[in-house]
Amino acid sequence: MAKEILINYQGEEAQFSHKKVDRSKLYGSRKRIPLDPTGENCQRCELSDDGSTLIMSGMTSQGYFDSDINWIPNKELIGMDSSGKALDKVPATLGVAQDAVISELESLLDLAVDSVYQLDPEEVPQSIQTVLESGKVFNFPFNYREDYHAESAYLIFNDEGYFALIGNPVKPEWMELDQIVEESFESEVEDDDDLDFEMF
Amino acid sequence: MRKLHLMNKDNRDAKVAISSLKYEKPFEMGLPNKQLKFKRYLSATEESLHKNLSGLYGDNYASNLIEENPEIDIEAIGKFISGTDVVYLSNKGELLYAPPKTVEVIIAPDGLEKERREPENIPGNVDDDLPVRWTGKKMAKSKVALRFAFKRTIQLKHVDGLTYDYLFEMAKELQDEDVMVLVGAGQKGKEPLIFQANGMPYRGFLEGRVDGKKYQLLLHLSNMELKRISSEPKK
Fold first, then answer.
1. pTM of the model
2. Residues of A with Cβ-Cβ distance to B21 under 8 angstroms
3. What is the distance between the alpha carbons of residues B157 and B19, in angstroms, rounded to a whole number?
4. Pick from B130, B123, B137: which is nearest to B189 by CA?
5. Under 8 Å CB-to-CB from A14, ≥6 apart: which residues?
6. How far apart (Å, rounded) are the C-alpha atoms in residues B1 and A28?
């Protein structure tokens, strides 16, 4: 069982067990399956662009290589910032109380949500419960496992119960009359999701 | 610059610019002072896949792996893979020379198959022709924020003085009322937003922020409510 999400607010600690929620668990999903002429499932493969290799599932790997084509094992890689400076690892936050602050709802709306956890309270002090019941939210750092970046988490409470929304903040730009929108030709809205929508 | 055809509560429409708000990942994996490239390569051949080797060697599979290394084909393994084309094999492993028929499988939330049907192609509905409209459904910002998970946000931007006034007024109205408005697409403006053919439908909520003469008009997109998995009641 995964360690609990613990938050600390003004010296009091709330503890939650957690379970990831995704669309397929709430609404189900759809997938498209190719069938051969006899109605049996097909196998999707790839053909290399020189036509010499038929690539089936499980036949490829991927990794980092240096300029001399030496494979670099993942365990040797480190996180670096945009200037190439090595970064320290950020420890996992599960099982360790994280300092939480009351946050504006606008900050929550500026979160690009990557994952959602439904939370079951093991212990919630009255001070934290009172804040949540007033419609406010808590913000705290979240890192499922040790790596080079902690995400931003929001603890919320609604009619369904407690939830943690995990993601990264985006920054909208303030628009003024004399601002000119720059032309670019990239597609601004990508849609990389499967067709698995039953919400409506 | 991508544009959005938008209609306000008074049925006045305009084409405005949009941009997706993205988070810049603050780190990259690598080695100091070394240029690394991420590549895909062949790590097995068809003959050396687990299912084939286990069938071939049976009970002696483990000892054969150790002693003879049949999983490694020196001639093939390590070949870099760049471009590929998708091909389909029949259930018997024969190459198909015509596109396969597809069937759409509906999976219930419990993971069980519920239905099989002909796939339906759903066109996008956010385009130049029909505007995305205000539905008239305004909800308190606090309710929306606690009820939906927003995966994406699109910022709406003016393209000239007239559209500045148009968007600024919208943002101001929403901020003054402390609400978000549900927007919809399609003929009647009631459908969820689908940005490309067979793409994910999203509920779109407009949020407005104003600071003096500056504004932010944000279209928050959600495909998931914040609710518990039905099999697991609230504690």
1. 0.87
2. 110, 112, 170-172
3. 8
4. B130
5. A6, A7, A121, A123, A124, A125, A128, A155
6. 35
- ipTM for the predicted complex: 0.86
Of B100, B203, B217, which is closest to A34 when you measure between CB atoms? B100
Q: Which two tokens stand for residue B132?
A: 């995305």
One-letter identity of residue A184? S
Task: Among B150, B164, B183, B213, pick the best mutation site for testing chain A contact (most A Cβ within 10 A).
Answer: B150
CATH of B2-22+122-225, picked from 2.40.290.10, 2.60.40.3140, 3.60.15.10, 2.40.170.20, is 2.40.290.10
Domain positions in chain B: 2-22+122-225, 43-77
Question: Beta strands B84-89 and B101-107: pairing type?
Answer: unpaired
Average pLDDT of chain A? 90
Label the pairing between strands A29-35 and A71-72.
unpaired
Domains of chain A, by residue range, sit at 1-24+86-170
Identify from A114, A199, A200 which residue to disrupt to test chain B contact, counting B C-beta atoms within 10 A and taking the largest count.
Answer: A199
Q: Residue B30's closest CA among A33, A148, A110? A: A148
| Residue-wise pLDDT tens digits, B7-16 | 999 999 999 9
